[in-house]
Design brief:
The complex is a heterodimer of chains A (145) and B (298).
Chain A: E1 6-15, H1 26-50, E2 54-59, E3 64-70, H2 74-78, E4 86-87, E5 90-100, H3 103-122, H4 128-139
Antiparallel strand pairs in A: 1-3, 1-5, 2-3, 4-5
Chain B: E1 8-13, H1 18-31, E2 35-43, H2 64-69, E3 75-84, H3 89-95, E4 104-109, H4 112-121, E5 126-127, H5 141-150, E6 153-157, H6 159-163, H7 165-182, E7 187-190, H8 202-208, H9 216-221, H10 225-239, H11 258-266, H12 282-297
Parallel strand pairs in B: 1-2, 2-3, 3-4, 4-5, 5-6, 6-7
Helix pairs in contact in B: 4-5
The chains are: A alpha+beta (145), B alpha/beta (298).
Chain lengths: 145, 298
């Protein structure tokens, strides 16, 4: 069976100054990425990439996003991610977490990653209430879109 | 042999401000680096040529307290970058004792002749270039191949490429030159970041290899395996010809029983100290092994 191969890139957005939420949605993120692709690779890169490019998931509180693109063009995206310093109107940098072939694998990895983060942070929080809040904040992951 | 773990970042410029340096190191731990080198640059051409034979190179900065703070998170090495114009530097390097206290030695040539010298006979490990000066210096094919055969590594710093678009163009030009002249062999990536915002994770850096003309494998090796090889080479330069590497785990005990003496004569001369492992607590052990290494190097 022949099928269309995709690549899913899971990224974390690390802002310059720590903030709680980013004002960011799928649309602005994908616009920013495509703009940068055009800046570095020109019209050719955009032509290769634009078909099949989509930001599948973007969580502004955990600051994690999943980008989908065709297998043929995924290196055009992944190679410029380190060079981006401005996302929308926020100074921030990308941190590539994982590149996978299915969204389920990406999902698994993100859950693992967040759990590890949680393990590290839990020790520093004193009260039980705050702990629950933290848990809710970190492990939130709605994939119903 | 000394244990080091990936990933590597061999160029963190030294900062007098403790807070900035600490911030950088914390970010590095967060991103998953395990072995880093703190860089100290030294301009050889500015020194007057009057006095010879005396010590030219500075002492390494004292970073013991930082080392202790990041004891089991990061392995911190020290590196010196020598900027030079003429070949006289090799004599000064031969007689210098301070130079042996650094783990890594990098050369940053300023002229075409110096670059050729750097590739063919420089007694160091890394060849780097000035990102702000543009791409006037491009390496020729022959010196490049010689440098590869000698096991030297070329360094590409990525953080100037992030900060400024002119630097980015030059950096890509230099990197692509390595690709055309010798298939990008012996290339390592390092950050050279002045601020923690300019640091990137190891996989991000490996992805950058696409625009620098390296293959996927080379990009991955440039932050991992090649750096390990480079480190081993640097160690062997520091210690001289070495077959075995004995590292004390406890205090040195010069045993006086006849049995022990007998075996002492059998071992080669290089191992002048018979090191006996004893089970003692964690803290003194580490200190001793440090002191022991010093003793061997000096």
């Amino acid at each position: 069976m022949v099928r269309i191969k995709n690549r899913y890139i899971a990224v974390q957005i690390v802002p310059y100054a720590p903030v709680n939420t980013l004002r960011l949605n799928d649309h602005t993120l994908s616009k920013c990425l495509l703009q940068n692709v055009e800046k570095y690779y020109g019209v050719y890169g955009l032509g290769i990439l634009e078909h099949g490019f989509r930001v599948k998931y973007c969580n502004e509180r955990t600051k994690i996003a999943i980008i989908r693109c065709l297998h043929r063009g995924h290196r055009y995206v992944s190679s410029i991610l380190p060079l981006i310093t401005l996302i929308g109107d926020v100074r921030a940098k990308f941190r590539t977490l994982y590149v996978g072939a299915t969204i389920i694998q990406c999902n698994k990895f993100i859950i693992n990653h967040q759990r590890q983060f949680l393990d590290r942070m839990m020790g520093q929080v004193a009260s039980a209430k705050e702990r629950q809040d933290l848990f809710k904040r970190v492990m939130e992951l709605d994939m119903d879109r | 042999m000394e244990q080091t773990n990936g990933f590597y970042d061999f160029c963190i410029p030294y900062n007098k401000d403790d807070k900035v340096l600490r911030g950088l190191l914390n970010e590095l731990v967060e991103l998953g680096y395990k072995t880093i080198a703190i860089e100290q640059s030294f301009d050889h051409s500015k020194k007057e040529p009057g006095k010879r034979g005396s010590e030219m190179f500075p002492e390494p900065h004292n970073i013991e307290n930082i080392r202790q703070e990041f004891a089991n998170k990061l392995k911190i090495l020290q590196r010196i970058t020598i900027l030079y114009v003429d070949v006289n530097v090799s004599h000064a390097m031969g007689v210098s004792l301070n130079l042996r206290k650094f783990n890594l030695i990098a050369g940053q040539p300023k002229t075409e002749a110096a670059l050729t010298h750097c590739c063919t006979s420089f007694n160091g490990d890394i060849i780097t270039f000035d990102p702000t000066a543009g791409s006037r210096l491009l390496v020729q094919r022959k010196p490049y191949l010689i440098a590869v055969r000698r096991g030297m590594y070329f360094e590409i710093k990525y953080s100037p490429a992030i900060a400024d678009s002119n630097n980015r163009k030059d950096m890509i030009k230099v990197a692509q030159n390595y690709c055309t002249k010798g298939k990008s062999r012996n290339i390592i990536f390092s950050s050279g970041a002045l601020h923690e915002f300019q640091l990137r994770g190891p996989y991000d850096v490996a992805n950058l290899s696409y625009i620098f003309g390296l293959s996927e494998n080379q990009g991955k090796n440039a932050i991992d395996r090649f750096c390990r090889q480079l480190f081993l080479r640097a160690e062997s330069r520091r210690l001289g010809k070495t077959i075995m590497f004995v590292k004390g785990n406890g205090p040195i005990v010069f045993s006086d029983s006849s049995d022990e003496n007998q075996s002492d004569h059998d071992v080669p001369d290089e191992m002048d100290a018979l090191v006996k492992e004893t089970t003692s607590e964690e803290e003194p052990e580490r200190e001793c092994s440090q002191a022991n290494k010093r003793l061997k190097v000096a």
